[in-house]
Specification:
The chain has about 120 residues and is mostly beta strands. The chain has no helices and 9 strands. It is globular.
Amino acid sequence: MPRFVIHEHHATHLHWDLRLELDGVLKSWALPKEPILPKNVKRLAILVEDHSLNYIDFQGEIPEGHYGAGIVKIWDFGEFKIANKTTKKIIFDADGKKLQGRFCLLKTDYGINPEKNWLFFRMI
């Protein structure tokens, strides 16, 4: 089963990075708010650069002057199963310590950077 990780990232602003093991990389979204969600509460998820699979276990400090400088901790990890995937929607069942249930990442055309903006929410 593919894996996921959520990094708590203390960079310029505290945020969480959701990373899904897809297509040989960690597809990644920055979540400005903590990912514990009541059903159907939609949160912004900003698509960021893919990361290599070996980053799934990373915890530590990214030094000043480097992309993402700050403290990175693993907030949650586990496995997931894709229920439905298109270019504009990813529905997956997460089995983590904190993140459990069916979740959706849905592409949106709203905001300042519409090409990177997605919505993240728990379905079940």
